[in-house]
Amino acid sequence: MAERSIPLIDHRQHSARPAVPLNAAAPDGLLADRRGRPLRDLRISVTDRCNFRCSYCMPKEVFDKEHRFLPHSELLSFEEITRLARLFTLHGVKKLRLTGGEPLLRKGLEHLIEQLAAIRADDGTPDGEPLDITLTTNASLLARKAAALKAAGLKRVTVSLDALDDAVFRRMNDVDFPVADVLAGIEAAVAVGLSPIKVNMVVKRGVNDQEIVPMARFFRENFGGKVVLRFIEYMDVGITNGWRMDEVLPSAQVVERIHQVFPLRALEPTQVGETAERWGYVDKVAGSHGEIGVISSVTNAFCGDCNRARLSTEGKLYLCLFASRGHDLRSLLRDPANYTDAQVASAIGLVWQDRDDRYSELRGSAAGDAAASAKVEMSYIGG
Ligand code: SAM
Ligand code: SF4
Ligand code: SF4
Q1: Cα separations (Å) of 278 from 26, 228, 265, 269?
Q2: What is the reported pLDDT for 98?
Q3: Phi, psi of 259, deg, nearest 5
Q4: What is the pLDDT of residue 2?
Q5: Residue 202: nearest ligand to its CA?
Q6: Among residues 184, 197, 192, which one has the least CA distance to residue 143?
Q7: For residue 275, what are the CA distances in angstroms to 128, 201, 296?
Q8: What burial class does residue 34 get, using C-beta atoms within 10 Å of its C-beta: 0-12 exposed, 13-18 middle, 19+ buried?
Q9: Which of 15, 16, 302, 381 is most deeply packed, by most CB within 10 A?
């Protein structure tokens, strides 16, 4: 991998300050972008740091001792994140996902979760429901933190695990972290009720594809149906990971390989904008969840329903995982003009209304190639 890593473009410099309308119209939750897509899901990166160096995300050669992570003063504070989350709910956001970097490295994260869990209809959610709050983690600190996260109001967790074979996993995280500790984190999350837990496996052909069936078997037979395994196609996020199409194993082949051993049938999607395609085991093991998911961001683009926005660690709004430019919301929050909530909410609304992103649909075309040269890193805006 080392020779293929490509230097980082510092996206922290590339952003635009959103316009604040003079007469702010009140948000009505009916916002739509230029392709008619609503805003429902906000992914919030709470840190750009990570204790892993997965080669597909933060290759060691780029994210080394010389790499300058953001200083604390640049990060959004918990109060700023909560204020923005509340304003996003006015536009229809129902689901928050905390991510990073590794979100559990952010000190006191449970206090942020408490604040987010308190958002209700009176100060945001249109129908009075609490938000669906979830977290994506490498689980290295989950065993220690699961109980506090649950008590703070976290609903579910998604855990990333790329192999059961210890040597393969240690190589992929590139910091020699053992599988057993991730499994202990999943165990702890099940024990405190942070379920259903999703386990995400990024599949890289020739690196961990031999782990597909062992992973399917293991999560079929363990954790009493509380864990759903999902296979993610290795994506060309960012530019540092030296992505190549021949390392992508199409989801159709993942399904085929599992189907040979454990016959599968297609299941209906549960909601609009769902990223994973669901497959059920024909012979369900008693006490198993009975299904897997595949996320085919490369071979089967799902931009048409994409209702996700991303907030970077220092408050830039990204409209697509593959965007090259953010919209600097922090500059509005910290402006001496003291913009009101209505003004900031309107500024967010204008940005979303102008959204036309659909990178996965354009991948490989001239427009896609033009966008591909400066994509933002996943560890910076979160998955
Ligand atoms: N550190 C946490 C973790 O790994 O779960 C959260 C942040 S990580 C950027 C979020 C998700 O993005 C993880 O499930 C990770 O496997 C996935 N990811 C990162 N780079 C990827 C790539 N190039 N292709 C597909 N998925 C990727
Ligand atoms: Fe860290 Fe998650 Fe990226 Fe791996 S995928 S390097 S755990 S942020
Ligand atoms: Fe959404 Fe961009 Fe992914 Fe398409 S490529 S599904 S618009 S994040």
Answers
A1: 38, 10, 9, 7
A2: 98
A3: -55, -35
A4: 41
A5: 1
A6: 184
A7: 26, 14, 8
A8: exposed
A9: 381
Question: Probe ligand 3: pick from 33, 97, 358, 362, max atoms within 8 Å of CB?
Answer: 358
Residues of the chain with pLDDT below 50 are 1-3, 121-123
Look at residue 347 in the predicted model and tell me its pLDDT: 96
Which domains, ranges and CATH numbers included, belong to the chain? 33-381 (3.20.20.70)
User: Residue 168 corresponds to which tokens in the numbers above?
Assistant: 């393969």
- Which amino acid type is present at position 32? A
Closest among 223, 234, 225, 232 to 281, alpha carbons compared: 225
- In this structure, the residue with its CA closest to atom 1 of ligand 1 is 102
379 lines ligand 1 (CB under 6 A): yes
Q: What is the pLDDT of residue 382?
A: 67
Give residue 3's pLDDT.
43
Q: What is the pLDDT of residue 242?
A: 83
Which protein residue's CA is at the shortest distance from atom 4 of ligand 3? 303
Q: Which amino acid is at 94?
A: K
Helix (H, G, I), strand (E, B) or coil at 191: helix
Distance 107 CA to ligand 1 centre (A): 20
Residue 141 in tokens: 């600190």
> Whose atoms come closest to the Cα of 201: which ligand?
1
What's the distance, CA 368 to chain centroid?
Answer: 22
Tokens of 313: 């660690």
Q: Is 342 a pocket residue for ligand 3 (Cβ < 6 Å)?
A: no
- Ligand 2 nearest atom to the CA of residue 140, by list position: 7
The 3-state DSSP class for residue 126 equals: coil
Strand partners, 132: 95
CA distance 90 to 84: 10
Cis peptide preceding 196, ω within 30 of 0: yes
Residues in contact with ligand 2 by the CB-under-6-Å rule are 50, 52-54, 57-58, 100-102, 138, 160, 379
8 A C-beta contact, residue 225 and residue 289? yes
- Ligand 3 centre and the CA of 346: distance in Å? 23
